[in-house]
Write a structure and sequence with these properties.
Strand content: under 5%
Radius of gyration: 21 Å
Helix content: over 70%
Number of strands: 2
Structural class: mainly alpha
Strand order of the largest sheet: 1-2
Order of helices and strands: EHHEHHHHHHHHH
Largest sheet: 2 strands, antiparallel
Number of helices: 11
Shape: globular
Length: 310
C-alpha cells in the first residue's frame, strides 16, 4: 500500500471530454477569473488609497478581497491550463500545495466572515463601545487570528491527508485537489484519523455559522427599533452585503460536505465545488459595491484622479 508521497502524479476530474467543450470551459473560467481579479483588485486599491475607508469594516473587507484572490488563484488557473492543454495531470507537490492553500484560504475566510459579523454587531447594537472594542490594534489582532488559524488548520489537514496510504488509484473526483477527494483514495481503515480532524473542523464551522446567525438576529432586532426609515436603510445597507456573502459561502460549503451520500455524483460534486470555490470570489466585490455608496464614491474619485493624471 503506497502512501500518498509515493504518488508522482494525480489525475483531476475534467469538465468535458470533447475539445470544443474544453475550450469553452477555458474561456468561461478565464472570464470569471479576470472578473475576480479586477473586482477584488479594485476593492483592495480603493480601500488602501482612500483614507475615508480606513475603518474596521473596510479593513476586514480588504482582507476578504485578498483571501478571495488567493482562493480563486489556487484552483482556477490549473483547471484552465488542463483544459487548454487537454490533460488531467497534477504533480504530487502541486496537489499538496492546492490542498494546503485551499484549506488555509477557505478556513481563514470563514473565520474572517465571523469577525465581520461581530464588527457589524458591535456597530449596530453597541455603537457607543465601537471605538473601544474595535480599535486599530484589536482589528489587526482579529485579522491575524483569522489568517493564523487558517494556516494551522491547513497544516493539520495537509499533513494528515498526505501521510495516508492510498489503495484506490490516483484519480481525484474533483477539478482540484481537496481533502475529501484524497480521502476517497485512501485505504478503508487508514483515514479515520483525518475523519476525526474533519469532524472537529465541522464543529468549528458550525460554531462560526451559529455565531453569525445569532449576531444577525440581534442586529435585525436593533435595526427594526430604529425610528427613522433613513437610519434603518443605512444600517441594512452595511449589513446585508456581508450577510449575502456569508450565506453564499457557508450554505454551499456545508451542503457540499454534509450532503447525503445517496445524492452524491461526480457532476453534482463539480457544480457544488464551482459554487463554493469559484463563484464567491467573483461575486463578493459586486455584492459589496452594489449598495455601498462609500465604495462607489471612493472608486469614482480614484478613477477620476487617475485619468486626470494621464
Amino acid at each position: 500500500m503506497p502512501n500518498s508521497s509515493s504518488m508522482t502524479v494525480f489525475l483531476l476530474l475534467e469538465f468535458a471530454d470533447t475539445r470544443d467543450l474544453q475550450l469553452l470551459h477555458f474561456w468561461l473560467f478565464l472570464g470569471i477569473y479576470l472578473t475576480a481579479l479586477l473586482g477584488n483588485g479594485l476593492i483592495i486599491t480603493t480601500v488602501a488609497c482612500d483614507h475615508r475607508l480606513h475603518t474596521p469594516m473596510y479593513f476586514f473587507l480588504l482582507n476578504l478581497a485578498l483571501l478571495d484572490l488567493g482562493t480563486i488563484s489556487t484552483t482556477v488557473p490549473k483547471s484552465m491550463a488542463n483544459s487548454l492543454w487537454d490533460t488531467r495531470a497534477i504533480s504530487h507537490p502541486g496537489c499538496a500545495a492546492q490542498v494546503f492553500l485551499f484549506t488555509f484560504l477557505m478556513s481563514a475566510e470563514l473565520y474572517l466572515l465571523t469577525v465581520m459579523a461581530y464588527d457589524r454587531y458591535v456597530a449596530i447594537c453597541k455603537p457607543l463601545h465601537y471605538g473601544t472594542l474595535l480599535g486599530s490594534r484589536a482589528c489587526v489582532h482579529m485579522a491575524a487570528a483569522a489568517w493564523g488559524s487558517g494556516i494551522l488548520h491547513a497544516v493539520l489537514h495537509t499533513a494528515n491527508t498526505f501521510s495516508l496510504p492510498l489503495c484506490q488509484g490516483n484519480a481525484v473526483d474533483q477539478f482540484f485537489c481537496e481533502v475529501p477527494q484524497i480521502l476517497k483514495l485512501s485505504c478503508s481503515d487508514a483515514y479515520l484519523r483525518e475523519v476525526a480532524v474533519l469532524v472537529v473542523s465541522a464543529c468549528l464551522t458550525f460554531g462560526c455559522f451559529v455565531f453569525i446567525v445569532l449576531s444577525y438576529g440581534q442586529i435585525f432586532r436593533a435595526v427594526l427599533r430604529i425610528p427613522s426609515e433613513q437610519g434603518r436603510h443605512k444600517a441594512f445597507s452595511t449589513c446585508l452585503p456581508h450577510l449575502a456573502v456569508a450565506s453564499l459561502f457557508v450554505s454551499t460549503g456545508l451542503f457540499a460536505y454534509l450532503k447525503p451520500p445517496s445524492i452524491s455524483s461526480p457532476s453534482l460534486e463539480l457544480v457544488l465545488a464551482v459554487l463554493y470555490s469559484v463563484v464567491p470570489p467573483a461575486m463578493n466585490p459586486l455584492i459589496y459595491s452594489m449598495r455601498n455608496h462609500e465604495i462607489k464614491d471612493a472608486l469614482r474619485k480614484l478613477m477620476t484622479g487617475y485619468f486626470q493624471k494621464q
